[in-house]
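User: Quick sanity check before I run a bigger batch. Here is a single chain. Can you write out its predicted 3D structure?
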Amino acid sequence: MPASKYPLNGAIWVIIILTLSIVSSTHYTNAATPSQASAAKSALNWLSINEKADGSFEDFPQIPTPGAALALWLNNSRSPQAAKSFNWIASQLDDSSSYAWGEADIPGVMLYTLGASNNVGLLHNPASVSSGLGAYQQKSSGFIGYYAQSPDGSYAQVATSVDTAMALWGMSQANSPISYENQTFAINYLLSLQNVDGRFNLTSTISQSSTDALGPEPISVTALVLLALRFAGKYTADDNHVSKALDFLANTISKNFTTTGDHKGHVYGAALSALAFQAYGRTVQALASVAFTLTQQNSDGSFLDAARGSSQKTLDTGWVAIALEQVQPGPLFGSFLSPIVFVGIIVAVGVAAVVAILAVFLVVSRRGSKQTAASGAVLNVLTN
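Assistant: Done. Predicted structure follows.
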């Protein structure tokens, strides 16, 4: 029966190949973890070094400090540096004369970070902060903040996607009161700004503006709107508006997060995209966004978006660090299969392979037996 050893050898090799493929794939998936952890560590170290004595960062600190504070807190919830920053943020929101209260997006992001870190209790009067932020909402529309030029040459604040998204995201994270009607008006305003390709405009008449600190280009604007829709509006990836926006962001990954306006990769937009992809369960695309940010880190550990000034690194470094900390590589196929289902599939594949091999073995054995019997019969006839 010399033929029998080949199916058995085949079974052994199938099992070996399956095992090696699982091990090597898992090793490859986890191989990205050390570099990502190292990048996060370097970014956090840069933030720690550049924090001011009062807990704030850079000039106009109300804008970059929230992201930096949350990044430090995610790394260590007992970080004294993060605590100092959150106390400073709370003091700014409690002070109605602070620069924080110039536009809706700034108090929105500050409130978001306090809510995400469970530090809303630092506010002396949370209700006053909520009402103050709500006052930026236009009747039956979005939240104002950006100064746009009128035909007569003057400037006036208008509603924008960035101000509205940040306000909604912050209020939802901090459980700030907003009526269902006003929330619906704000969300409908956001949806009215979506283009055919899925991206969102800054305003009804302005597609984008590099002077908008928290949303300088369509990538970051679209990601912010997606985050607001997910956490304030409870939207899912199955919604048509969301699906189109996610597809737009996915397309920017293949283009290294460049825009048609400057053809440069935007690391801030990539970081927000990673958070948006993760919020909607698109883990593979979230990790791809993080992978792009890893290629953009400076030698000192900081990050700088193409839209920023040469010295304004904290805003980008803070939000990239947040993405690096929150979007982590998981087990093989973890983005769409639970471990139990994955193990079940592997077992099923193994069983199917063994059954198929046994079937081949039986067929080959029967054919071998028939051939042996037939040759014996012929030999017997010849002998007679």
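The chain has 13 helices and two strands.

User: Great, the batch can go ahead then.
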